[in-house]
Q: What sequence folds into this?
């Protein structure tokens, strides 16, 4: 995988209620970060208009809808994500190998795409720990489950996974250095961890091997979001 600049490693989570709020952040930050994450809140509120509007402002989109359904349904949703021109989108690895393989097959068969999107799988949500998995009947420790799901995603043809920064090294060792790891749970020093249980600072995550980091409130709720984004990019550059 080619070298990614410090600022391009930053994906800003647009976890806001409406499109004007999202676009205000995009206009402010598009020169200082690599992409913007549209999650369930914004997409449910605005639909594909959010994707089109961000593209219109020159921003790249990570569509974070975490598809998880029968293989045919996820494949069709994946095709529509690709047609929207997003640079990356995701699905749950717990949907299984057949679901992921069918999504990859369908997207690769879409005619006329200018560029294939990066397709990644969510392993274990960063809000969850081993104690949260046990009531679900999952006895494996979090790190073992994450690696197992990452291997499943790699073998299904996906480009990478979403995982806690604490599992990056294990994933890279198991799946290879070019297998992409996108890490949420990023909190600059002194920031509130909020609902993240397995968090790291931006510098720590990059040193561990993160290809992209997802940052929300430490940038979007900062007094000066632009300065906050630049500070994180500087920390990343210093850590490499």
A:
């Amino acid at each position: 995988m080619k070298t990614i600049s410090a600022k391009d490693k930053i994906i800003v989570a647009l976890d806001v209620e409406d499109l004007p709020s999202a676009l205000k952040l995009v206009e402010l930050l598009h020169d200082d970060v690599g992409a913007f994450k549209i999650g369930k809140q914004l997409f449910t509120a605005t639909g594909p208009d959010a994707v089109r509007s961000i593209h219109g402002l020159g921003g790249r989109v990570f569509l974070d809808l975490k598809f998880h359904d029968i293989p045919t349904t996820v494949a069709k949703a994946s095709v529509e994500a690709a047609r929207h021109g997003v640079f990356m989108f995701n699905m749950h690895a717990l949907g299984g190998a057949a679901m992921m393989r069918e999504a990859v097959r369908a997207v690769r068969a879409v005619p006329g795409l200018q560029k294939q999107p990066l397709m990644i799988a969510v392993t274990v949500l960063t809000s969850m720990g081993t104690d949260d998995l046990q009531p679900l009947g999952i006895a494996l420790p979090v790190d073992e489950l994450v690696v197992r799901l990452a291997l499943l995603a790699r073998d299904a043809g996906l480009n990478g996974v979403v995982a806690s920064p604490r599992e990056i090294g294990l994933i890279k060792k198991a799946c290879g250095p070019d297998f992409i790891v996108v890490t949420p749970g990023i909190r600059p020093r002194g920031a509130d961890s909020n609902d993240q249980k397995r968090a790291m600072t931006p510098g720590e995550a990059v040193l561990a091997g993160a290809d992209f980091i997802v940052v929300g409130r430490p940038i979007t709720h900062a007094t000066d979001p632009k300065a906050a984004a630049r500070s994180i990019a500087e920390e990343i550059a210093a850590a490499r």
